[in-house]
Structures are given as structure tokens and as C-alpha cells.
Amino acid sequence: MARRLSLPRALAPLRHGPFRLLVTGQVTSNLGDACYAVALPWYVLAGHGGTLLLGTVLAAYGIPRTVLIPAGGYLCDRWGAPAVMLATDGLRAAAVAALAVTAAAGPAHAAELVPIAIVLGAGEGLFLPASFSVIPALLPGDHLQAGNALASGGTQLATLAGPAIGGAAVALGSPAIAFGLDAASFAVSAATLAGLARVRAATAPPAGGQAGPGQDRPARLGTIVRAERVLAVILIVNVAANLGSGGLDGVALPALAHGPLHASAAGYGAILAAFGGGALIGTIAAGQAGRIRRPAVAGSAAFLIEAAFIAALPFLGATPTVAAVVALFGVCNGFGNVVMLTVFQQWAPPALLGRLMGLLILTSFGVYPVSVALAALAGRELGPSSFFLFAAAVLAVAILGGLTQRSWREFGTTRPPAAADAPGPPATAAQLPGQAATAAGQGARERTPAGREDVTGG
Length: 458
Known about the structure:
Elements: H1 17-46, H2 50-67, H3 69-79, H4 81-105, H5 110-133, H6 144-172, H7 175-194, H8 197-203, H9 218-227, H10 229-258, H11 265-289, H12 295-312, H13 319-347, H14 353-366, H15 368-382, H16 384-403, H17 406-409, H18 417-421
Helix pairs in contact: 1-2, 1-6, 1-7, 2-5, 3-4, 3-5, 3-14, 4-5, 4-7, 5-14, 6-7, 6-11, 6-13, 10-14, 10-15, 10-16, 11-13, 12-13, 12-16, 15-16
């Protein structure tokens, strides 16, 4: 009898049809986002809109995105992640289509661009918590980490390939064509999310007011926030880590490349590509690793190694060497983020996953402006090298501080008691047709400013 070929562990989630639909739609959407990221500044600046208009448009996008993240978490728990993602993708498809029409009609003006940016930012803020909460409802627990790795890896591939597509669309046609591609990608994503209709019922609030994945129970959220010490540790570590990462990527790294390294634009691009390639390798490694006995310790080790690489970067002296170390830095970051995201999804009660993910994302995005401002100040007063040392020190101190806490070291090995002690019947994981229910809660890059904003620590 012929032996059946088995997929590698990292590809095992692709056996599940709903997950394949999700990844197909999200990778397509991220390709469109990369086209948008190229076309927007080109459209504004080439049309003599100036940096002031570009900054105004980005602010009009970023503020509602950040403000509405908690609301997105609430809606995710109330209506289910697929429903929220479908609604926001439909909204953003319409907004970017309007932007394509605007770009085809003439030069950039604040009166048209700012309202569109507000709609796009609001849609993104509502979308983000759901995008990080949907995979546990689509996969059994033993495939969750590999599923997160595949979703993250697909996003990274799209981020690497998308700018070339967007650049070609702008060069050969116009920014309107790139915006049209982005609108079409949102439509494709919405169509794939509509294909998840058969699992939406499993994640929607059950009738009769019983507890379930979509049931809003504020007392339970308050209980877990007050009772779970590890949640406070996670948020502190996340804030500290992102206090360095935003300024590192957005200010210090380009300043190092342009200044001490005397790198060309191509050299700086090679450094960014090296990080993307390394992060892709790290996510694949995390997907292939399977269950880790002490996941928080493994993730912490990856982030501590990453901190050492960050500290070394400004003293390497040559662009190829910096690119090589940035690639290793990316491996650690990709591995650690997938491991810690998975364990957070497993730990969180399913009925609160959207709101807890919203809280985690908010602490990541919320410190970005502070990080960029600190990097700019440090670069002006002390040179770009100083912020590398600051970012490495803050990350290392945060991780080492977390490791002094038993709740952090054992994070991911036990189920939170607050979920069991909360009033009402316990929530259970969403169950797909033909699948046995897994343990509760067992077993996604969105359009952001340049740089990485981690939601899991490093």
C-alpha cells in the first residue's frame, strides 16, 4: 500500500480550508497595502503637495487607527473576528477606490485625502485586534503556532514583493493604478472572509445570553486584569520593547546608514531586505518547532540575543556586515514574536481574546510616537549610535525583569485561573464542522508606518 506523504509541521495548517482562505486573502491584501505605501507619498509629493500635506494625511490615518483599537477588540469579542474583518475590508476597499478615482482626477488636495485617510485609519484600528484573534478559531491547538508563522511569513513575503509591484504600477502608469490594485486586494480579502461564513456561527455570540466567544462580560475582563499578574508583566515588557523598536527602525537605522556607514539608497534597501529575510526564516523556524516546553523562556532568549545584535550594529563599520547582523536580528525577532503571540492566544480566554489583543496592540502602537521622538532627540544630541544602545538596554532590561517573575517564566504552561473563577459557564473554543473541540483558546503585517511594531515583546 502506498505511503501517504505528510506535510512538514510548518505547513500542516494548510490542510484546513478556512485557514487557507484566510491566508490567501490576507497575503493578497498585504500586497495591495505595499502598493499603497509606495503610491501615497509619490502621489502627494509629485503633485507638489509637499511634506506638510503628507504628514497631515499620515496623522489623519494614524490617530483614528490608534484610538479605535480598543473598540475593535470589543467588536471582535461581540460579533466574531471574521465579521469585523469582513466589514472593515469592505469599508477600506470603498475608501481606497475613492482614492484611486481622486488620484486619476488630478493632484493631491487635503480636502479629499484627509477624509479618506480617516476612514482608512478607522478601518485599520477596528481590523487589527480581529486579525490577531481569528486564527485560534480556525485551527486546532497543535497547529496554532505553525498557523501564526504561516500568516506572518505570508505577510513578510508580501511586504518584500509588494513595493516592486507598486513601484512598477506608479512608474508605468500612475499612482491611481496602484491605489486601484490596493482596492482590488481589499475586495479579494473580503471575498475570502465571506467564505468563512460557516465558521462565523461558531464565533458569534450564542443565543440565550450564555457565555461564549462573542459574549461581552465586563466583569470577566475586569477580573482577569486585576487577578493576572502576568498580564501586567506582559504589558510592561511590551511597552519597554516597543519604546526602542519604533525609533530604531524609523530614525536610528536610516541615520546610521546615511551617516557613519555612508550607504547608498540601495545599501539601505539591502539592510531592510536583510531584516525581512531574517524575520521570514525566524517565523518558519517557529512554525516548524512545534510545542515548546517553556515558550516564554524560549521567546525571552530570542529577544535577549536580538538585544545583543542591536547593541553591536553601530560599531560594525560596513554595510554588508550590518546587513548580515540585521538578518540575524530578524531571525530572533521573527521567532520570538511568533512564539509569544501563540502563547498569548492560548492563554487568553476566548471570550476576551479580542479585547486582550486590542490592549496588547494598543501598548505597541501607543509608544511609537514617543520612540521616534526619543530617537530623533538622541540622534541630534549624541549621534545615531546612542539610540541603538538605548534600545538594546531597554529591551534587555525588560526581558530580564520579566524573567525574574515566575508568572512570566511559566507563561503558556497553565490556563489563567481568572477565567475559571469568573461568573458564568466557562467559554469554549470555536469548533469547526467535522472537528473535535480543542482546549479552550488553543490552537497575523498590517499597513503601518515604516518600521516594525511588535505586539509580543521584541
